[in-house]
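Fold it.
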Amino acid sequence: MSGRLSELLSIMARLRAAGGCPWDREQSFASIAPYTIEEAYEVADAAERGDMRHLQDELGDLLFQVVFHAQMASESGEFDFEAVAGTICDKLVRRHPHVFGAGAPLTPAAQSVIWEDIKAQERGAAARGRADGSPSSHLDGVPQALPALLRAFKLSKRAARVGFDFEHAAQTADKVAEELAEVREAAAAAARAAAPPTDAAGAGHDQRAIFEEIGDLLFAAANLARKLDVDAEAALRAANAKFERRFRGMESLAAQRGEIFADLNLAAQERLWQEVKRGE
């Protein structure tokens, strides 16, 4: 183990020890988990921007989260950092038989298939070892804590592995159109319910229907992205960045012309949007 990694483990142990940091001492796995997720996103952000200085810094923050969880587990006698490292070493060797075994070289696509097959075998073995005897599912192991769009992508991918999938992307696009039509129908029903005389109970039901149909639409869109071999989460991040860039551009153009963007009507704002879009 490197000197600096040993130093990090010692620092973490000191922070959690009697006389250490009060805040660190009172944390639990559940209270630290949101910080772990946040640090992972900050790593992804630095990587996308190609900012190597910040990537190094953010990777250190993420490593600290791993060390924090391992330290708490060590205190309760569950496992320690060495065991965490051992687990991932064993997993990587097990999931790369063509590298660490006698297999022939593989293409990235073939390796991906083998990786998923091995993961499925591991999930089956884990399910057979459950104390409560609950049955296994092909959807086992898709974390509840994933961002909803990413989880939708992974759920549909798992279902597709066992044949529950549209044959063509066009069929998946049709499903998106179908779900959008159902959103429109639910919204129209809610508008009718809101008209006098208003039925509060009915309006509440219609709003729940809109909520459900919007969820179906988003799931169908994530499934279409998978079918077209597009990372839905990355695509949405890119769309967010594009919207933010164009919106800021509109605000800047308005200010250059002595206008207050918020005071412009929608038609004037739309003209600015199109102007910014043409200038890209």
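Residues 200-227 form the longest helix (28 residues).
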